Structure formats: structure tokens, C-alpha cells
Amino acid sequence: MAFTPRVFSGIQPSGDLHLGNYLGAIRRFVPLQNTHECIYCVVDMHAITVWQEPEDLRRRTYEVAAAYIAAGLDPKRSIIFNQSQVIQHAELGWIFNCVARVGWMARMTQFKDKAGKNTENVSLGLFAYPSLMAADILLYKSTHVPVGEDQKQHLELTRDIAQKFNHDYRKRLKVLGFDEEYFPLTEPVIAGPATRVMSLRDGTKKMSKSDTSDMSLLYMMDDADTISKKLRKATTDPAPLPEAVKGLEGRPEAANLVAIYAALSDKSPAEVLAQYAGAGWGIFKPALADLAVSVLGPIAAEMRRLVGDRAEMDRILRDGADRARTLAEANMKEIRQIVGFVR
Ligand code: AMP
Ligand code: TRP
Q1: Quick one: CATH architecture of 6-195+310-339?
Q2: 214-305 — its CATH code?
Q3: CB 3.0–4.6 Å: which of 79, 193, 243, 302 could bond 39 by disulfide?
Q4: DSSP states along 108-138
Q5: Which ligand gives the minimal distance to the CA of 188?
Q6: 290-301 pLDDT tens trace
Q7: Following DSSP, what letter does each residue of 285-307 receive, concatenated?
Q8: Would you say the CB of residue 263 lies under 6 angstroms from ligand 1?
Q9: Is the C-beta atom of 10 inside 6 A of ligand 2?
Q10: Where in the chain is the domain with CATH 1.10.240.10?
Q11: What is the arrangement of strands in the sheet containing 187-189, beginning at the earlier edge strand?
């Protein structure tokens, strides 16, 4: 069956937004508005799988929504809202907890990374996290999900859940006259030069909210001086920039800075190297800093303005939630019927 193309993605309001979130996700959300119906969520229910100070959770929820808008999402065209306002996410999440298997969850590398040695003491929600993520996506029968590389495994699990639901309920789907492929097998959209932005201090480690060294991340809200300082001090090898992408092999820090430049300027790494082949870091780093400031500066300024206008932000989130809920409830009515819940 052909599903209406629909884009869904989400970001947790669990730490300050960084360049990986911007280049791997938010920046790539924007052009999809021109071609698809898009739903962009601030996944606050996912965030509390690890402890969040309530006041921080609120502030960051506004910040992530503000980042979406400041980066170019139009709340009239795209649906922008925070997850907890549309309670159907939790409802479908529960049903998927009963579709997914414990063994599937136990294999998730993000869970293993976040839980570390402490698997007995993390929240049950952290373990079930991917099942709620599948619910976010499938509640709207979304067909495309733009994310960074680290989410690939979760999207494969989303497909597994969709497939198992379609299979387990196949008789019921037939009786009720639904298509046998009730949920779509969602496509991950992991594309572009910066699907995995690395730490500025170690080109083999992902740039991550949980990094303890501030110098390894560029935050979306960093001021111009901080951006320049962090990029100037970024770890690199001594060799100049190569002529071709192949010359970046085995040079993770150089490859990362070139990828960041490429993503910020909507070019390919090959085009960046065509311009900077043979240049030393004394030339490339300041050029990258200027570019980063020119892109991130205006976004940060707009984010500050938006988070200062709580009434406007509340209005946008409420409107987005109302539109999302209408779509979600239409599907939930069917899903309750398929599962056999009495209403
Ligand atoms: P999170 O901060 O885990 O909620 O991630 C939000 C989005 O940013 C997801 O689509 C991630 O895949 C993406 N993301 C997070 N870190 C990076 C990174 N270092 N490089 C590229 N994308 C990232
Ligand atoms: N798991 C994602 C992350 O950690 C956030 C997320 C939750 C998400 N639900 C989603 C991303 C649905 C895409 C679609 O980054």
C-alpha cells in the first residue's frame, strides 16, 4: 500500500543543543518542509528516562522548539510540539511495549552506552525507550525520519516493531478491512556530510551532550568568541589539507572539520577540498570559525528572542499539539479497535 509521505523527527530536551544536533538533525529538517508534510517533536517524555530537573526540562523544551524555528522551520507549515502534550504517544508506546521483545531492547547500543555497568539501576523507561520512539514515528504512520547516524539502530527496531504488529494482528486487520501493511516500514533519512559530527578534541569520539569537556562541543548558543576559540583549539594533525577526500582517510580530526565546513556551507567535502587543498590549519580554522559564526550567530540570536517570549512559544506548541493530536487520535481509534480494546 502507498502511504502518504510524512516526515517525523524528535530531539530530547535533555542537554544543551550542539553542532551535532544542528548538522545531523535540525538543519536537515528544514528543506523537507518544501517537499513533505513534516512533524517535529520535542521529546520530553524521552528526556525523563534519565533524571531531569523539572525547571531545566521546561527551559530546554522551549529551547529545542526555539532552535527548530530559529533554524528555519515554519510552525505554520510544519507541526512543532512537545511530546507530552499528545498523550497518544504514551498510549501507543505501551502497546508497543507489548509487541517488542526484551531481547530486542537489550541489544540497543545506545542503551548499553547510557546504562554502562549500571544496567540494574537505570530506569525501566530507559530500557523501553526505543519502543516509545517507534510509537512517536508510527503514531502518524510516518514514512521518513531524518536523524543522525547514531539513531540508525533505533529505526531498524521501529521497522521490526511495525512488522511484528502487522504480522501479529494480521487476522484482525483482515476482519476489520484494513490493509495488511497497517504500519509502514519507515525509511531512515541519514544523509549529507555531517551525519556523525565528532568531538573537537578527539576525532574518534562522537560529539555528544554527555561529553564532560566543554571544549569538545560547539553549542548552538555559544557566542562568536567561544565558537572561534573552540575551533582554533580543535585537535588536528600537523599536515595541510589534502587535495581529495581520499587523503582524509586515517585523519579523523581533519575529516571532521572538513565535514563540518561542508555541512555549514551546503557543499560536499570534495568541493571544500577543491577550495582549500594544500592550506594549513592557520588558514582553514579561521575560515571555518567565520563560517560557523555566520551560520550559528543569527540562529542563536533568534533562539534567545524566542525563548524570551514564552506566551508566543506556548501558543506555537499548543497549536502544534492540537494539530498532532488530531492526526494521532484518528490513528489511535483504529489501533484500539485492532488490538481489541472496548470503547
Ligand atoms: P539527541 O540529542 O540524542 O536527542 O539527538 C537529537 C538528534 O541529533 C538525533 O537525530 C541525533 O542522531 C542527532 N545527533 C546527536 N549527536 C550527533 C552528532 N554528534 N552528529 C550528528 N548527529 C547527531
Ligand atoms: N532517540 C532520539 C535521540 O536520542 C530522539 C527521538 C525520540 C526521535 N523519538 C524520535 C528521533 C522519533 C526521531 C524520531 O536522538
Answers
A1: 3-Layer(aba) Sandwich (3.40)
A2: 1.10.240.10
A3: 79
A4: -HHHHHHHTT-TTTS-HHHHHHHHHHHHHHH
A5: 2
A6: 999 999 999 999
A7: HHHHHHHHHHHHHHHHHHHHHHH
A8: no
A9: yes
A10: 214-305
A11: 79-82, 37-42, 6-11, 144-146, 187-189
Q: What is the mean pLDDT of residues 10-23?
A: 97
Q: Residue 147 Cα, ligand 1 centroid: separation in angstroms?
A: 7
C-alpha cell belonging to residue 317: 506548541
Domain span(s) for CATH 3.40.50.620 in the chain: 6-195+310-339
Q: What is the pLDDT of residues 146-189, one digit of tens each?
A: 999 999 999 999 999 999 999 999 999 999 999 999 999 999 99
CA of residue 262 to ligand 2 center, whole Å: 25
User: Are 319 and 75 a contacting pair, CB within 8 Å?
Assistant: yes
C-alpha Rg value of the chain to the nearest Å:
21
CA 263 – ligand 2 centroid, Å: 21
Q: Flag whether pLDDT at 1 surpasses 70.
A: no
In the set 141, 152, 209, 229, the catalytic residue is 209
Catalytic annotation on 174? no
Ligand 2, atom 15: nearest CA belongs to which residue? Answer: 11
**Consecutive H or E run containing 245:** none
User: What DSSP character marks residue 195?
Assistant: S
Q: Rounded to an integer, what distance in angstroms lies between the CA atom of residue 304 and that of residue 313?
A: 12
Spacing of C-alpha 19 from chain mean position:
12
17 C-alpha vs ligand 1 centroid, how far in Å? 9
Active-site residue flag, 206: yes
Assigned C-alpha cell, 21? 544536533
Ligand 1 binding pocket mutation candidate from 11, 16, 21 (most atoms within 8 A of CB)? 21
Span 227-245, pLDDT tens digits: 999 999 999 999 999 999 9
